[in-house]
Please model this.
Amino acid sequence: MFGYCRSLYWHLTNSNHVEILCTGSLGTAFANGGRGEGCRVLLKRNQVRHAACAFKKRDRNVIVRREKTKIMHRVVEHSGVVYLGGVIADEVNGTSMRDQAAEVCGKIEKLLSDAGSDKSKLLSATVFITDMSQKAEMNDVWTSWLPAEDLPCRATIGVSDLGQNVLIEIVVTAAA
Model:
C-alpha cells in the first residue's frame, strides 16, 4: 500500500463487499489507481482483511463497524479495542436467568471471535438485569464461562425493563 489515510471508516454492505471512506490520500493503494482526499472504495471482503492490516499499522484512527441494525452497529472496533453493544438472548420466552445468561455469553464469545478477539481479552462488562434477586444465578453462569484470571472489571445494574421477557443484557469492551 502507498499513501496514507488520516481516518478510515468502513462498513459491510449487504452484498459481499465493503465500502471504505478515507479522509486522507490513499495514493495508489488500490488496483484501479490513485485516489485523493475523501475517496470511497468498494472492495470484496477477501481484499479488506489485507487492506485493514496495512492501515492498522499506520493509522490508529481506523473505525470498523460490524453487524448494522436499525439503531446501531453491534460491534465497533477502534484503536485496538472492540466495543459490543448490548447483547440479549434470542430465546426469552419462558427461559430462566441461567438460560438467558448462558446464551448471551455464547453470543458475546461469537461476536468477539468474529472481530478477532476472545473472552480472555475482556476489559470491562456492564450487566443489566431486571431482577437483582437472580444475580447469584447470573454470577454462576458468568464465573463458569470465564476463568478467574480472565475476569474483567464489571458492574451489575438492576433495571426495571429490558424488553418483554428479557432478563439480562450485557455490554462488553475487549482488546482486539
